[in-house]
Design brief:
174 residues, alpha/beta, seven-stranded mixed β-sheet, 7 strands, binds S-adenosylmethionine
Length: 174
């Protein structure tokens, strides 16, 4: 009986992931662990920052961030069921991290000082005009690996890593 319940659980988990691949703007492909530390170092955070991760996956970026900045408020927005549940479980003990199951395009990001994204270039092209409308002037948008080809970045930071993904941060100041 226990085996049956566990098997059903795994099948549902797997099906939810398949559905997510076709219904989200980018699949759940998390940042490699070895790059996380370098990303946090380059986010230009201070104790008054409010960080959003739009499409936060399992919230590994926010989790790594609180190791260095335990008092910073952060919000993860995630639409897919499996990564959302993982993010909630992993961050359940940290009151400064809020995880919301939402579409990034309808999320309220108006209090953000920093927005981190690891999405596709075409999603960046759709997202940036929305962020420009919703956020304060001066908010930093930090995109891992992918640029919005319609905008000139404020800065491009090359992360010194051997990982295949998570090699650059493209920074835009709104
Ligand atoms: C490439 S993963 C990045 C995960 C995480 N930010 C990281 O760096 O490890 C992209 C994530 O965005 C989520 N996502 C894609 N489209 C979304 C949308 N419209 N609203 C909310 N989340 C979305 C996916 O489910 C996935 O977990």
């Amino acid at each position: 009986m226990v085996c049956l319940i566990i098997s059903i659980f795994f099948v549902l988990f797997f099906l939810a992931e398949i559905v997510a691949i076709f219904t989200t703007d980018a699949p759940f492909v998390p940042i490699p662990e070895e790059t996380l530390e370098k990303i946090i170092e380059n986010l230009k955070l201070d104790n008054n920052s409010i960080l959003y991760d739009l499409g936060c996956g399992d919230a590994r970026v926010l989790q790594k961030m609180v190791e260095k900045y335990p008092n910073i408020k952060s919000v993860g927005i995630e639409i897919a069921f499996v990564p959302y549940i993982l993010a909630r479980l992993k961050t359940r003990k940290n009151k400064n991290i809020q995880i919301k199951r939402q579409n990034i395009f309808s999320a309220d990001v108006s209090d953000a000082t920093h927005i981190f994204v690891y999405l596709y270039p075409e999603v960046m092209e759709k997202l940036m005009p929305m962020l420009e409308k919703k956020c304060w002037k001066g908010t930093l948008v930090i995109s891992c690996d992918f640029e919005d080809k319609n905008r000139k970045p404020t800065e491009i930071i090359h992360l010194d890593t051997l990982a295949k993904r998570g090699k650059r941060l493209i920074v835009y100041r709104l």
